[in-house]
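User: These chains co-purify. Model them together.
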Amino acid sequence: MNGTMTATGTAAVTLQVALVAAGAPLLAGLMRQVRALLEGRAGPGVTQPFRDLRKLLRKEAVTPAGTGSAFRLGPLVLVATTAVVAALVPLASTATPVSGSADLILVVALLGLGTVALALAGLDTGTAFGGMGASREMTVAALVEPTILLAVFALSIPAGSTNLSAIVSGGIHDPVRLASPAGLLSTAALAVAVLAETGRLPVDNPATHLELTMVHEAMVLEYAGPDLALVELGSQMRLTVLLGLLASLSAPWGIATTASPAALVLALVLLALKVALLGAALAAAEVFWAKLRLFRVPELLAGSFLLALLAVTASYFLTGE
Amino acid sequence: MTHATTALLLTAPIVVPLATSAAYAASGLRDAKARAAGAAALGHRTPRQRGAAAPVATLVLRPGHGPATYGTTPAETADGPSYGGPGARAWPGTRPGGSPGGPGTGSDGIAGPDTGPGAPAWSRGRPAAPAGTGTGAGPAGRARPGRGPRTGAPGPVPRPLTGRLGLVSPAAILTCGAALACTVPDSGPVTAYGRLLRADALTVWMLLTVGAVACLACAANPAHLAHERTDEPAARRYHLLVHAFLAAMSAAVLAANLGVLWVAIEATTIVTAFLVGHRRTRASVEAAWKYVVICSAGIALAFLGTVLLYYAARQAGIPEAYALDWQTLAARADRLDPSVTRLATGLVVLGFGAKAGLAPLHAWLPDAHSQAPAPVSALMSGVLLSVAFAGLLRYKVIADAALGAGFTRTLLAGVAVVTLALAAALLLAQRDCKRMLAYSSMEHMSLIALGTAAGSPLALSAVLLHMAGHGLAKTVAFCASGHIARLCGTTRIGRIRGLLAHSPCLGTAFAAAVVALLGLPPFGLFASELGIARAGFLSGPRWALAAALVLMLAAFAALAARTARMLLGPPPGEDDEAEPVPLGADAGAPLVAGLAACAALGVTTGPLTRLLSEAGEIIGGH
Amino acid sequence: MTDSVYTQLLDLACGAFLLAAVVVLWLRQLSSIVRVFALQGVALAAVAALLGLHEDRLGLLAVAAGIGLLRAGALPRLMLRALTTGTPHRSHPHYQEDVSETRETQPLVNVAASLLSAALLTLLAYAVSRPLVELNPTPATRALPVGLAVVLIGFFTLVTRRRALAQMVGFLLLDNGITVTAFLAASGVPLIVELGVSFDVLLAVLVLQILTTRMRAAFGGTGIDDLRELRD
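Assistant: Joint model of the three components:
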């Protein structure tokens, strides 16, 4: 019994990471395709990001003169941290060997580590755009991290633990929590934070290469070849993981809470569906949004921080004892 | 006293001003019709205008102001709701003459006199007779005793009603106050309408103060409007609002229910907003905006306090109908939850403090008082502040019983010292005459708050005496400042010189009012300030009193120096006129009456002594 | 209605009520601010109606309907009128959109800082209302901090916003907060007081609307910063 449990749990973790790593380019392709269709273009197809990655990986690795280890390690750290987060977060199953370590604070710290690694890499190039991008990225990150922490913290109050698995399984067993003001507010705050963290509209335009408005792209402007492929994959995986986390927290139905393989398969399918849906919805929304001017971004993030804080207070003073 | 008489006495101070207000509104409607009818009405009105214009014209007749300025203006005041309302003769002290057996149609209001010899109660009957039937055909026998026809008036033309009608409601308030003053100290508090209205000694004292000050201010109204060159609808709106204002203040004083008290006090804000913005200049619009926003928001905090008190009362097991009843709350205050009551009291002090001109929400006061027409400034400064503070006193009784006296004492003493410091600092740098008086009001309100903080019976009686004395003296000062503003064309202290030489009567009146405000004998404020200081050093927060005395010295010096500058010296235009400008009897009478009353209060409280001490006991706690 | 559903709905209504106050701070367009204020009025009426259903008091339902009409209907309409009176209509040949008139462009405290202040104010309200909740902990009184938070946010809006209309909304937020406090604490004040208060609020808004029109006539705009005639 214990053996099967561990085996299924391990399988769940492996499958989760594999699904995220393989699905991330697909998700990016899907979102671009939705956008293209809505804008009346034919679009390159869902698998285009795969082809891009393959093309980049075949190229020769080039690093700018004068860059150090930070530049070379940045993409690796980004992908590695994201993969660890993908393993920890209860996307498909709450009963995994690592679910005991799936602590909220650890997850946020890992995400922050990836951001910092990339920002350092951007600074390492010594170019104006790299520095500018890094500075903007850190400004946004400084506002986003506390919001994510607070939002998930609000969800953790009814569960009595900051362990993400406990929060998610609590949500499955007591769906009323999710419709409470605290649950709704923290979901809204988390959604805004995810948009900012993954560099989507209205905080950052992932499709732009106009220097003055870039945030994320400015930072990785100097990358080429396999390094660029890693950076792209890392960003796509972050988007996938965060959308998956959002889906797990706000609509946890279908996530396996036991070690049954059938439940796990169902959970993986549902996860893919949920994330695809969220991604499509986001892409559709992006068609109608304009990018905020940079100095309005703190307003948006302060707003989402406030929502998260209200969620925390609400979970104390409304239903809390 | 029968139940009906009680009900009448408690209702009249609210209903009569309301009815008067309605009369002005109705006259507006009637007038619109008349205008549509054509020139007949116009011709009918013309001789009266002149009759009204003459008495108030004295001040304008000087070089610089063309005599033509008032040629048409008094028409508005003249064209009041009509002329001959029976029962419009109502001076303080006299009973309303009435139409015996007038068409008693059952509309609420008053007209005919009660025939009982001892109790000057108002009988219920036709209100504002002028409003309903005033077609100008009523018996015009309303010649004021001792005042003949004016200079320039073509024959004994009856004066337009406006002036007299304006005095009906203050007289009603004063008369009801007097009637209650005869009975309440002996037979205890009375209630009416299922404990909606209630009169105890404190109510009666406040009612008398409101009535007296309102009489002075309303007597000064016609002269003021005549000189302001107000057009007809504006004048009518002015009267309408003034009387609604009086009704709201009476309601605030008489309310037994703390919620109703709040509603009435908020109503005073709404009603006076357009009075402050009466002139529609940039400055007055600004003052009105600040006034409404700050006062409404401040007083909303008081409502929050009231709501919390209601919550505490409901939790203490008091049924819904009585949970805001002041008497019930005061009697059962010991059962209220202390921490909730503490929060509620803090909010109420902040909220009613805003309306009473206490820090930190006092910013509206100098603006509103300086921009409002002088009689309205007088009413606002003289009684509105005190009425709001009287509301605060009601809450203090409850808070003291629930929390012990220490909490409100510290709170009020702190607020008082801060307010006094602000007022003294701004008085020192003041350059505008009306703003100076406004800051002096803040100074006096903080003294009142300090006396309340002291809390001994002596202090509380002194506080009530101070309210009345300040009301009278400040009314005289504001009304005089209105005349000064017209005489000199400015309210800037730097541009006013030699008032005593320029217009001796006016100068003397203003000087006397300021002397009263400075707290010098023989005026009532001397006695009350002495009482507050003595009581404070005996019982109260000595630190606050010591600080207050130092600050008062600064305020005293500032007020005295600025007034001296305005009063003394040669008049500005030295060559052309050596002849001093006389103050018309119409304009002068309220000033003299106010000063006399204030001085009388300083010498003795006479028959009111018992009322005063009982009112002091009420707020001293049970 | 079971107790848990009642609690859940009450919490949702209170959450929406608080959220509306926050969104008012967040927005710049004055007409959107007024619309959000109207939504808050709906949430307030919902709170009153829920309490009425829970306590089986028909009177409270009637009060709820009245409050909904006043605060989600009449007051927003009056304010929108204050926004448009005195300015030429869109179809007017001289129409020229004055951005500074229709938007809160320069608040005393910028929007991000306002939102953070609102967060602090909410925490303050929570701290202050502890004794209130402890006196009688029920689902309704547990939501009392929401009322106090909206009162504080309303006061903050009143102090920091520099457009006449935004100040009006601040005052009304304050008032909404007090009303919801009354409902949550004691199922509303007695009817006569409630009527008086509603009437006073309606008149106050009317007065402010007329003063706004006068201000536009006298100053050429509704910026509070233009009001600097009177100062010491």
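The first helix of chain A runs from residue 2 to 38.
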